[in-house]
Amino acid sequence: MSVLIFTVIILVGSYFAGLLGSLTGLGGGVVIIPLLTLLLNVDIHYAIGASLVSVIATSSGSAAAYVKEGITNMRLGMFLEIATTAGAMCGAILAVYIPTHYIAILFGVILIFSALLSLRKKAENINTTKSEWAEKLKLNSSYPTGNGTVAYSISNIGGGFFMMLFAGVISGLLGIGSGALKVIAMDTIMKIPFKVSTTTSNFMIGVTASASAVVYLQRGYISPGLVMPVVIGVLFGAMTGSKILVHTTSSRWLRWVFAIVVTFLASQMVYNGITGKI
Question: For residue 249, what are the domain limits?
Answer without folding.
Answer: 3-274
